[in-house]
Amino acid sequence: MSGNKTKWPPISGDFEVGDPSGCVAVCTLGKKVRVDADYAIIGTCKTENIGIERVIVNVISNSYVRFLILAGPEVPGHLTGSSLRCLYEQGIDSDTRKIIDAPGAIPYIENIPIEAVERFRSQIEFVI
């Protein structure tokens, strides 16, 4: 991609873009982790609300991404990895917007449509 500008991902953050046509996104939770493999995007996700919203938007904006790999240590108090897993497995409550059964301190997805959450859940396979 050197020399080419891409409009993906649409939301900035603490991540690195690999091959945008790759099928793997790697979420390293609270610590940057280097991997020696191909990926579309790799980066941290430190909060169980806005951080997860950013992951959702960036993943669903690239239809090539089909797998989300979680790696690295949980973020104390936020429990982002566990919250992401609950989101993938159970979704969010349509009234409260809370991630169902998520253990994080404030696991609410309030800034993106429920349809985006459902697309995320159907687009990816979750890998731990």
How would you sum up this structure, described in words?
The protein is α/β, with parallel strands linked by helices and 128 residues long. The protein has one domain (15-127). Helix content is 25%, strand content 13%. It has three helices and five strands. It has helices at 50-60, 80-90, 114-123; strands at residues 15-17, 24-27, 41-43, 67-70, 125-127. It has a five-stranded mixed β-sheet with strand order 1-3-2-4-5. α1 (50-60) packs across α3. The longest helix is centred in the middle third of the chain and has 11 residues, at 50-60. The chain starts with 14 loop residues before the first strand and ends with a strand. The model is unreliable at 1-5 (pLDDT under 50).
Order of helices and strands: EEEHEHHE
Largest sheet descriptor: 5 strands, mixed
Helix content: 25-40%
| Share of residues in strands | 5-15%
Write the layout of secondary structure elements.
Elements: E1 15-17, E2 24-27, E3 41-43, H1 50-60, E4 67-70, H2 80-90, H3 114-123, E5 125-127
Parallel strand pairs: 2-3, 2-4, 4-5
Antiparallel strand pairs: 1-3
Helix pairs in contact: 1-3
Keywords, separated by commas or semicolons:
128 residues; alpha/beta; five-stranded mixed beta sheet; 5 strands; 25% helix; disordered N terminus
In short:
With 128 residues, the protein is of the alpha/beta class.
